[in-house]
Design a protein that fits this description.
There is one protein chain. By secondary structure, the chain is an alpha+beta fold. It folds into 3 domains: about 80 residues, no CATH class; about 140 residues, 2-Layer Sandwich (Beta-Lactamase), CATH 3.30.450; about 90 residues. The chain contains 8 helices and 5 strands.
Length: about 325
């Protein structure tokens, strides 16, 4: 039974309108979702350096406790760098990046701990592994005793370089975090975007489908009820009852159509009434003409009888009297 009723439901106008509203709502919400997420993706991609700088500042505050008892333990600091590195490169928009080195240095520029594909040797000078421009940035960060200076840059080949001060709770600089990584992988970025779109798309589709179904049904029911009133009025008009009125006080297209049809029905009613009055008048005129012709014929016959009586009166009085009786 359900396999038969389902298509029949969508053959009716209410079902078609409800289905149309639902599909339109789903498509519209999905397009908006894709547009919003794409805009967010582009914004984050264009602000990768700013996002990296913010993340590194947050991680640098976590490194300060390791300097409480002087020089931190290399193994402990290396383990911490592994954890922080995973947090950084596994979040968007740095997905797919690979750290060339992620290093902690002290205020003299000595390497305390380092990880990455080109990890630096501990207790060596940082300047031996970086370019002159990077060395200048490192000195600028370490020479700011208040730890307010940080540097993030992107090299010509797309390599990201971040230098962030490690500041104690007393506001004294204790060292710096150096993060150098390959540029984010475009494939991973696109995959992450599609994954987010797919996940949120399921939720958006369900919400849009339910909302479209509810509002579509309410709107479709309102329209079909108004059309039903027009249909009922037109049925009465087809049976000759032009006193019927299609009630619709709306000012939209359906309301204007109902008003025009009501005026048409009123004009037809007036026309039929005028034709009935004209037919009655014509019938009266025909009866008057028939009556006039009948009286005229009778008068003519009486005149003939009187003429004949006049002639017979001189010849035969009995015959003349008979003629007078016939004329009467």
């Amino acid at each position: 039974m359900s396999s038969i009723r389902f298509p029949i439901l969508f053959r009716r106008l209410r079902g078609k309108l409800t289905f149309s509203y639902t599909i339109t709502s789903v498509v519209t919400f999905l397009l908006l979702e894709v547009m919003v997420l794409s805009a967010v993706f582009v914004t984050l991609t264009l602000n990768t350096t700013a996002i990296l700088e913010t993340d590194m500042k947050q991680q640098a505050t976590l490194a300060s406790p390791y300097f409480i008892h002087g020089a931190p333990d290399e193994e402990t600091l290396t383990a911490w760098l592994q954890i922080v590195n995973g947090n950084i490169i596994n979040q968007w928009p740095l997905s797919g990046s690979s750290p060339v080195f992620f290093t902690v240095i002290n205020t003299q520029g000595q390497v305390l701990a380092s990880i990455g594909t080109h990890a630096l040797a501990a207790h060596t000078a940082m300047q031996d592994y970086i370019s002159s421009s990077e060395a200048i940035n490192v000195q600028a960060v370490l020479q700011d005793s208040h730890g307010k200076t940080s540097r993030v840059s992107r090299e010509a080949n797309g390599i990201l370089v971040s230098i962030t001060p490690i500041v104690s709770t007393q506001g004294k600089i204790q060292g710096a975090l150096l993060f150098k990584a390959t540029p984010p992988n475009s494939f991973f970025e696109l995959f992450d975007l599609l994954r987010v779109i797919g996940f949120t798309g399921i939720i958006v589709t369900i919400i849009a489908a339910v909302a479209g179904l509810i509002f579509g049904y309410i709107t479709a029911r309102s329209i079909t009820r108004r059309l039903q009133r027009l249909s009922d009025a037109s049925d009465k008009w087809s049976r000759g009852d032009f006193s019927a009125v299609a009630e619709d006080n709306s000012t939209d297209e359906l309301g204007q159509t109902a008003q025009r049809l009501n005026r048409m029905a009123e004009q037809l009613r007036n026309l039929l009434q005028a034709r009935q009055e004209l037919a009655t008048l014509e019938e009266r005129n025909r009866l008057a003409r028939d009556l006039h012709d009948s009286v005229k014929q009778q008068i003519f016959a009486v005149g003939m009888q009187l003429g004949a009586t006049k002639v017979l009166l001189k010849r035969d009085a009995d015959a003349a009297e008979k003629r007078l009786d016939e004329a009467q």
